Amino acid sequence: xxxxxxxxxxxxxxxxxxxxxxxxxxxxxxxxxxxxxxxxxxxxxxxxxxxxxxxxxxxxxxxxxxxxxxxxxxxxxxxxxxxxxxxxxxxxxxxxxxxxxxxxxxxxxxxxxxxxxxxxxxxxxxxxxxxxxxxxxxxxxxxxxxxxxxxxxxxxxxxxxxxxxxxxxxxxxxxxxxxxxxxxxxxxxxxxxxxxxxxxxxxxxxxxxxxxxxxxxxxxxxxxxxxxxxxxxxxxxxxxxxxxxxxxxxxxxxxxxxxxxxxxxxxxxxxxxxxxxxxxxxxxxxxxxxxxxx
Length: 294
Description:
There is one protein chain. This protein has helices at 5-22, 27-37, 43-49, 55-67, 86-91, 95-105, 115-126, 131-141, 147-154, 161-173, 192-195, 198-211, 252-268, 285-291, and strands at 41-42, 71-76, 79-84, 177-182, 185-190. It is mainly alpha-helical. It has 2 domains: 5-18 and 99-291, Arc Repressor Mutant, subunit A, CATH 1.10.10; 24-84, Winged helix-like DNA-binding domain superfamily/Winged helix DNA-binding domain (Arc Repressor Mutant, subunit A, Orthogonal Bundle), CATH 1.10.10. A 3-stranded antiparallel sheet has the order 1-3-2. It has a two-stranded antiparallel ribbon with strand order 4-5.
């Protein structure tokens, strides 16, 4: 279905907003402890389970989580009690996809065991301005590209290439993006770790659909609309050997082979289904992004 780069950025913004709600330190840990209580938990009891946080830190985090709609606080005879809202309970469904991805593609967390530290580590990696938009833009391109070719997907219309290079450098440091080619002619593409973000982003995307308002439409893209007629295809290829990247100076045959390999990977990827289905849900934004680019 034809669309614009503005709609892809809108989808990325919703994902980025969702990650911003869930990524702050201790958010997932507190949600798990409240979920185990199977009801309201007194503030002192919660504080006893969160000894790594000061009273002020716990109060500030709970206030932010309440504003995000994850928890609710109330007063009872014994004092303040805290309980999960539905959004907070369902936020825990993202744990295993994120933990699996982090355990496969990131080093062990500095502290803690189990899925929580891996989940929080992965969320922190993505909780940077325009990180998700850059990943979606590269996934939609499907092959090594110059920054100028996808800047309109990765950034708001009022930002330029000078804003994109620091983000690419950070994602490269995080192991999600790789750079090939010659200086001043670098090409960028997703690494296997970047391509493998399909499952966790699908999970957080479904949570966002249920619990976050759709973001406002972003400004009109810089690219002419006529250049954006697209053919449906999944955003992220399933983990598989990556095609050889096209390098500056490579002949037409090599570049054509690279494009064919990228297209094969995109076509072969299967849509990942969110395991928890309380009710029929609309198509998640992840799968739609590639359909909007190719």
